[in-house]
Write a structure and sequence with these properties.
The chain has 18 helices and 25 strands. By secondary structure, the protein is of the alpha/beta class. α14 crosses α18.
Length: about 600
Amino acid sequence: MSRPLIAADVDELVGRLVRPGDHVHLAGTPSRPNALTYALCRVFGAAGRLTVSTTAVHSSAHALALSGVAKKVIAGFAGDTYPSPRPNPLYARLEQGEPFTFEAWSLLSYVQRLIAGAQGAPYAVTGSLAGTDLAEDKPGVLHRVPDPADPGREVTLLAPLRPDVTLVHGVAADEDGNIALVPPLGEGAWAAYAARRGVIASVERIVSREEMAQIPDRVVIPGQRVLGLTAAPLGAHPQSLRTGGLLGIQGYLDDYAFLEEIVASCHGPERGSDWYRDWVAQPGSHEGYLRRLGAERRAALAEPGSGEGDTYAAESELWQEIHRSESAAGQQAARQRQSTTPSEPAAMPDRPAPRRPASRQERLIVLGARAVAEQVRTHGYDTLLAGIGTSHMAAWLAAELLRTGGHDVKVVAELGMYGFTPQAGDVYLFSLLHAPHSEMLAGIPEILGGMVAANPRALGVLAAAEIDQSGTINTSRGADGRWLTGSGGANDIASSTDCVVIAPSSRRRYVDQVGYRTSPGHRVREVVSDFGRFTRTAPEGGFRLATWLPADDAGNDGVQDTQQQAAEAVATRTSWQADVAGVMAEKPVTDEELTLLRALDPDGRYR
């Protein structure tokens, strides 16, 4: 067996193993190969003419657009995820092919295509996409054919996804190319097996065969699939990398400040070019990038309990050189962080404390949590899978309210966390800090497939940019034609399981007919606004306003007054024609609900 190329740095690795015009896959495991992505941009620029596939285009992946290296992108999402999910102006004209041609998928259907490619199958079969615009304009890739067992029905077949090369960032690799990863695993190793030529990898540390032989259960990608590799400490930054202390290697958290810098730059006057210049082009290499980050910032990101300071220094010449030129302040900061970071989720307060009134967004989250909790109690759901944003905050709060009432429900996240308790104070849905407090760590197929699509007791909790009275959801294209964000896992959830949708009231959000069908509406049981909850009794039926929450300063003189106020709210704050007969008043938001919510979100990100 030939051994993989071991390159001095990511730029050399990319320059020697990637070819102009290649289909390059950026693996989401869920850590991303960001150092390798930057190298793609520096080495090739607009001359790369690459087709790029990746689960989602956000944060550092905006470099693909800013460099011009990608001619086409295949993904399930393009926008921002932190500090909250929202459109990014770089992609306003995405449907017109700017800054690249975009092929939109749902997250599970995208991974199902990778699995088919990895297994040499002619097609993947999916239960997602049917009846939505995501299934359109994919000739030769998506096929709707009669079900052999029931010719009156159709099944959806997907062509396998087979990139030329797959880029991965791992925890460690040995000289034979065996790559170790620590769960959760996102898409896992499927793209590594699907790649026609093989894998190009960066890792935190290259270790000996003897060290790797001690952890065969952590080898996710075998060396036979690996073309080349290099050591690139913090190669997933600004995303996190969980190591769990594997081989003494230091893991690191999401760099939220950096993520916000990217968002601010892309929404600013230079539309991201200043960030790209400062962090991708001018550093000129991964070493330059690490120097620009600085020891103190690097150390402050240390994963609690995964190691002592910068453990790379003993083995990496790059780290040794960088450390020789920096003070010891970084290592001290890491020790301080590790000594003060809690190893268990922060405890929720025992008693409600006096609070200022709930904001409109908090009212939305509380009403959503009440709806989710009621659905769980009434219908026996045991699993909550939430989309990112106010929807996941409502699911988290519902789980807390249910738990205080002695009712256990499992919270899951699509990238691979099952049965987790959120780390109080960290509102990012995919934060590494939630992982140690999970009952299981797996990947996208296990969560979106096994725990959602194949689980009749799962309940989805979703958001919507637009929703109509059939329950159909749009998160892809605005009324003005601008690109929003895409599906992520939302289509997969709405296609296969019952759902509650959390959406702030607006005539532009609650519409007669959505402008793009991202997710089907036939499994939507309830739609929650900030002034009340819309329900229906049958999938083909329309929604009626079942409950009404008056504003904090609004009076309520009885049933007649409640119906009048509710009718006025529906008429002025939505474009729906929803019946309000029999509407019931919601109880005011309680101190207990606000206390639990603000304990989860002490910084008021969702206030």
